[in-house]
Amino acid sequence: MSPSLATVSQDSCPDFTVLPTVPTNVIFTGVAGTGKTHQLQQLQRLYDETLPDTGAQVAAAELQNYNWRDVICAVLLSEDRTMSVPEMIRHPLIQAKILANGRTDNVSQTLWVQLNTHAHPESKTVQYAQRSANYYFDKNTDSTWYLLEEVKAMLADSLTPLLALQASLAQKSPINSTQKIVRTSFVSFHQAYGYEEFVEGIRPAVGGQGQMSYQIQPGAFLRLCQRAMQDPEHRYAMLIDEINRANVARVFGELMSLIEPSKRAGQADAMQVTLAYSNKVFSVPSNVDIYATMNVQDHSLLALDTAFRRRFHFIDCPPKPELLPVLSIIVGDRDEDGNAKAVETIELGRILAGLNLRLCQVLGQDSQLGHAYFMGVTDLAQLQQVLVQQIVPQLAQATGSQVETLRYLFNDSQASPEQQFIQASPSQSLSDRHAAHSNATVTSAGLSPPMGAMGMRAGFWLNPDFINLSGLFRTALPYQRLYP
After folding, report:
1. Phi, psi of 279 (to 5 degrees)
2. Distance (Å, rounded) from C-alpha 315 to C-alpha 6?
3. 237 burial via Cβ count (<10 Å: 0-12, 13-18, 19+)
4. I need a labelling partner for 381 at 20 to 30 A (CA). Which of 45, 308, 344, 405 fits?
5. DSSP count for the chain of H helices, then E strands
6. Within a domain: residue 469?
7. Is residue 32 assigned to a domain?
8. In this predicted structure, what is the pLDDT of residue 324?
9. Which residues contact 363 (CB under 8 A, 6 or more apart)?
C-alpha cells in the first residue's frame, strides 16, 4: 500500500493511492471534522472500478460478482413469469454469465442443481433431498419454475445492480462506458446495529397472499465476503463509519478471530468457524480489507476492547489548519473608482490553530476542533455563522459553560468589551451604546441574548455586535485575536 502501513506515522492521516497486497485492517481515529469519513470515501473510489471499455467487458466483470443462484433469481424477477430451464438458458443475462465464466458445458445441469437446491421445502413437485435453508423457487407440474412471492422484495433490493445490467442487455442498448464495478460495502454503525445486519440473521418476509415466513439472510459483511470468494483476483473492502457507536463484540460475533490478517483463508494460520444461524462453515477471504472510523471525542460512545484493537492498525487523523483558506474583507468605503480603500485578511487556519492550542491547554488533545467546520467558509458572514451556530455551542458543552474558560478559549480576557466574543453579563451593541450616550431610549432588544436562548442552559452572553456582525466584528481585528 502506498503509503505503506509500516511507514505511516501515528500523527498523520495518509492518502491511500495503491491497493494493499495483503489482508489489511485499519481504523482512522480523531476528533470530529478531521476527514475520517472522507478517507473511507477515497478508499471506496480506489477499490471500486470504473470500466471505460465495451459493454460486454462491463457485463462480464459485473457478473463475476454474482453466483448462478443470483443470476437465476434476477432472470425470474425481471421476467415475472414462469420459465423452463431451456428458456432461462436463452435469456441474455444467462448468456452473459456463460461468457463471463468462460464455459458453455453443463449449463443446464448447473441451473437444474441451483433451482432444486433452493426450492421451497414444502414443494409438491420437487423431490430433491439436498436443499438449502434459503429457498427462492418452486416448480409447476409442467416443469416450469417461478420465484416465490415472499422473496421478491428482498431480491429487488439486494440484486439492484444485476437487475440494471439485465435491463441494459434486454434492451440491447449500449451499457454506460463508465459503469462502476462495486467492490466495497459501506455501513454506518449505531447503537442498535447488530450481528444480524452485519453477518447473518433471520428476517421476516411477507408472501403474495400475506403469509409470513422467516429466512436466514446474509448481512453486509457476509455478502461482501461471498462476492470476494468468487472474485479472488480483486481486492474488496468493508468500510465502517463510526465503528465505536455499536457493540463490536456483538456485531462481529464469532468472526472476531477470523478478521485477523494471519487467520484469513489461505494464510498459514487460517481459521474457520460455523456460523450461528446457517451452520455454514465460513472463513474470511484474504482479499477482503476492513477500514473504519472512530470518534475519540464523544465519551458516550463504546470503547473498543483490547482484543479487537489488536487486530487493527490505528491511524490518527489530526486537524489540518493548512487546508483552510485566507479570507479577504473590504474595510470602509470604496474610492470614487469603486476600488477598496482597505483590505484586511483573516487566516482561517490560524483561527483553528489558536482555538485548538488553547483547547489542548485547558481540556486536552481530544477536545480539539476539526478543520471541516471551516472548509466551506468563503466570507465574513459565513465565518460568523460557523462560530455562533457551531463552534460556540460545542465549546460551551465541552467546558460545562464555564464563562472564564470560554473567555480564555476566545482570548477575551485582555480584550476591550467591544472586541469580546464571550461576556459574563448582558451588554449593549455599539450602536445602542452610542444611543444611550446621547440620552436616547434604549430597549432590552439591544441587549445580547444569553446562550440559553440558543437552546442551551448557560450563564454567559455573546457580544451583540458579534451576533449582528456589526461594529468591530465587521473588521478582521477580533478574529485575528483568535490566532495562536
Report:
1. 60, 20
2. 11
3. buried
4. 405
5. 19, 17
6. yes
7. no
8. 96
9. 398, 399
Whole-angstrom distance, CA of residue 185 vs CA of residue 179: 17
What is the distance between the alpha carbons of residues 397 and 453, in angstroms, rounded to a whole number? 15
Q: Which three three-digit cell numbers place residue 95?
A: 448468456
Each residue of 23-35: b (16+ CB within 10 Å) or e? bbbbbbbbbebbb
Last residue of a domain, one of 301, 316, 331: 316
- Last residue of some domain: 285, 316, 347? 316
For the stretch 30-45, pLDDT in tens is: 999 999 999 999 999 9
Question: Is the preceding peptide bond at 3 cis, omega within 30 degrees of 0?
Answer: yes
Contact 241, 292 (CB under 8 A): yes
Residue type for position 384: Q
Burial of 124 (0-12, 13-18, 19+ CB in 10 A): exposed
Return the residue matching grid coordinates 490518527. Answer: 316
For residue 288, what are the domain limits? 50-316
* Contact call for residues 390 and 382 (beta carbons, < 8 A): no
The predicted model scores a pTM of 0.71
Show Cβ contacts of residue 86 under 8 Å, excluding neighbours closer than 6 positions.
108
Span between the terminal Cα atoms of the chain, in Å = 37
- The beta strand positions in 31-159, using DSSP E, are 49-50, 137-139, 145-147
Instruction: For 256-311, write each residue's pLDDT tens digit.
Output: 999 999 999 999 899 999 998 999 999 999 999 999 999 988 755 666 778 888 99
| Closest C-alpha to 385, from 483, 477, 376 | 376
Angstrom CA distances, 51 to 61, 62, 164, 170, stand at 9, 10, 16, 20
Pairing relationship of beta strands 212-218 and 461-462 according to DSSP bridges: unpaired
* Tally of domains in the chain: 2
Nine cell digits for residue 240: 465502517
